[in-house]
């Protein structure tokens, strides 16, 4: 298990926006790339203001960021890729993994996996249209990805690096929608096209986040792939990471989502560094609180955002159930802050993975 491994941060809708990415990258460096919550490409060919704000270069300066796009239309995806390329991004990720019913019923995200003929036609049309624009699709995924564009003194966006006419298209997928047997057909499709990276969440779409990842199917998909493969699914502790790497030492990239919300220092710990400290976690949450205040209007809206984070951060503490419940039920900022003080004052902080679930 001496081969180096790179860590990617998975997108979580409503949580891992640019305030989170900026704060985490500053306090806990080590993530190779942060993937954004998906931007929905639609018939208007315009993203919502909130979505565009999340990928603006000035909001991601210094943070290796990859925009993720959700769509099942080739023209929409191509337009989105060109928009992201104009902003300076060198990789764009296609979401084929979202398991939420609202998206699955629209045949987007994991719902798109069920119609493999349509998926094949989608890729064929996307690649042809992108190449027709003069873009060269690069399959090597080793390059760091972050916005090359920066904001000049005049406010005009300009290219800080010469990104030329290249782009990388990566894919985040499930092993299928209904059945793991779908995986073989999916890999045949992916292998036909110049994809830079296949990120595999080793569950079916219908599983959402229940049950355990299907490592047998992941291993089969990895063996079949002609592209680099990244694993995603239930990596919460250093032990989880080590167990996976012992079984799949050839896997060079791991994507972690909920594990980093529970333990923002997980990557540091996996590299043999210091375990997350209680006061370090408190300082991190304070900085996140302030970061959200800078972009979200209204104390109550910021409080609700922090409540989402406490669903995960609360797993670090034993004997704090009373205060964690108060955080969930808080209806004023004062009540929320008092409950947080109670967690840190009376809760037993668990280093490492002792209380992680």
Characterization of this structure:
There is one protein chain. The chain contains 14 helices and 15 strands. The chain has 357 residues and is an alpha/beta fold. The chain has two domains: 6-270, Aldolase class I (TIM Barrel), CATH 3.20.20; 278-349. The strands form three sheets. Strands 1, 2, 3, 4, 5, 6, 7, 10, 11, 12 and 13 form an eleven-stranded parallel beta sheet that branches. It has a two-stranded antiparallel sheet with strand order 8-9. Strands 14-15 form a two-stranded antiparallel sheet. The radius of gyration is 20 Å and the shape is globular.
Key words describing this protein structure:
2 domains, TIM Barrel, 14 helices, 357 residues, alpha/beta, eleven-stranded parallel beta sheet, single chain, two-stranded antiparallel ribbon, globular
């Amino acid at each position: 298990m001496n081969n180096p491994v790179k860590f990617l941060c998975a997108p979580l809708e409503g949580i891992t926006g640019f305030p989170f990415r900026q704060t985490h990258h500053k306090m806990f460096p080590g993530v190779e790339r942060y993937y954004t919550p998906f931007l929905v490409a639609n018939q208007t060919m315009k993203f919502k203001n909130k979505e565009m704000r999340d990928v603006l270069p000035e909001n991601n300066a210094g943070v290796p960021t990859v925009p993720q796009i959700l769509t099942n239309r080739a023209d929409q995806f191509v337009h989105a890729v060109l928009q992201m390329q104009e902003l300076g991004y060198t990789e764009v990720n296609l979401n084929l993994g979202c398991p939420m019913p609202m998206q699955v019923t629209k045949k987007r995200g994991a719902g798109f996996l069920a119609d493999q003929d349509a998926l094949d036609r989608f890729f064929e049309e996307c690649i042809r249209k992108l190449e027709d624009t003069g873009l060269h699709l690069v399959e090597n995924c080793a390059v760091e990805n972050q916005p090359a564009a920066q904001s000049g003194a005049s406010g005009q966006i300009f290219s800080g690096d010469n990104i030329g006419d290249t782009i990388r298209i990566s894919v985040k997928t499930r092993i299928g929608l209904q059945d793991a047997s779908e995986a073989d057909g999916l890999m045949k499709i992916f292998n036909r096209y110049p994809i830079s990276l296949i990120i595999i969440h080793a569950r079916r779409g219908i599983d959402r986040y229940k049950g355990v990842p299907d490592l047998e199917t992941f291993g089969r998909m990895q063996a079949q792939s002609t592209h680099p493969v990244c694993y995603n699914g239930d990596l919460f502790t250093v032990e989880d990471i080590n167990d996976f790497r012992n079984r799949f030492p050839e896997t060079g990239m791991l994507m972690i989502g909920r594990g980093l919300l529970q333990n923002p220092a997980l990557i540091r710990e996996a590299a043999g560094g210091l375990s997350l400290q209680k006061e370090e976690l408190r300082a991190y949450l304070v900085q996140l609180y302030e970061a959200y205040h800078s972009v979200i209007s209204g104390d109550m809206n910021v409080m609700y955002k922090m409540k989402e984070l406490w669903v995960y951060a609360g797993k670090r503490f034993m004997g704090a159930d009373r205060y964690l419940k108060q955080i969930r039920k808080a209806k004023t900022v004062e009540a929320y802050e008092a409950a947080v003080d109670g967690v840190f004052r009376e809760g037993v902080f668990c280093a490492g993975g002792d209380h992680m679930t």
